[in-house]
Specification:
- By secondary structure, this protein is α/β, with parallel strands linked by helices.
- It is built from 7 helices and 11 strands.
- Strand 4, helix 2 and strand 5 form a beta-alpha-beta unit.
């Protein structure tokens, strides 16, 4: 599939798929979106609601460019806990794609480039130690092949949007997510689409609309009841 590379509103880059008219991240700011949706409303929300957690297990649906993993790895260095991170991706990006991704420069003037590189260079299908506080397991498979039960405190649901791949936002997929979470676990996503919200509720989640990142009025946060 043809791929273009664009600069989003906050200066960070993303991949654009013209055949689908879909970007990997928000045109309003790739880093801004990820920081708001996944770090603020996901990671920090989990820490604030479960302060006794010393290791947080995260599942990312759509590892993609590695942006969410990169930001999480950087964020956890200033916090009193560790991250066990699993990223699932059916179609990993290529080395050519990585040449056009500027997240390390955009975030820390390139000083964290070795961390970003390590996230992509480490082997798939095995757990890798990226830092003293962050381990990463990358799995290449379809989201529907996830069979984990009660393993995760937090899910970053960052699949392509419902317009492009509505089957990924179905009750069946969200039931897989529900089963993968521990009790009191949280799922966050950039989408606030009504059909997605209803699919989450049908799968058993308690769902709330909360303020979204720049360019989006709302997003969804869902919790698995105790």
């Amino acid at each position: 599939m043809k791929r273009n590379y664009i600069t989003t509103a906050d200066g960070s880059s993303t991949i654009y798929l013209p055949d689908l008219d879909e970007t990997y991240h928000s045109r309003h700011g790739a880093i801004q979106e990820a920081m708001h949706v996944f770090i603020k409303e996901g990671l920090h929300f989990t820490i604030s609601t479960q302060p006794n957690l010393k290791e947080i297990s995260i599942l990312e649906i759509g590892f993609g460019t590695g942006l969410n993993a990169f930001l999480t790895c950087l964020e956890i260095e200033g916090l009193d806990c560790k991250i066990d991170y699993t990223g699932v991706e059916a179609y990993p990006i290529t080395s050519q794609d990585l040449q056009h991704i500027n997240y390390a420069n955009a975030i820390a003037s390139g000083s964290k480039d070795m961390i970003f590189k390590a996230l992509h260079d480490c082997p798939w299908e095995e757990k890798n130690t990226i830092s003293s506080r962050f381990s990463l397991l990358k799995q290449q498979k379809s989201f529907t092949d996830i069979a984990d039960k009660g393993l995760y405190n937090l899910i970053y649901f960052d699949a392509f949007g419902p317009r492009v791949q509505p089957e990924l936002w179905s009750e069946a997929v969200f039931k897989i997510m529900f089963n993968a979470l521990k009790e009191n676990g949280t799922l966050v996503t950039y989408s606030a689409q009504g059909n997605a919200r209803r699919a989450m509720q049908a799968a058993g989640f308690v769902v709330e609309r909360i303020p979204g990142p720049p360019g989006k009025r709302e997003m969804l946060r869902a919790r698995k009841p105790v």
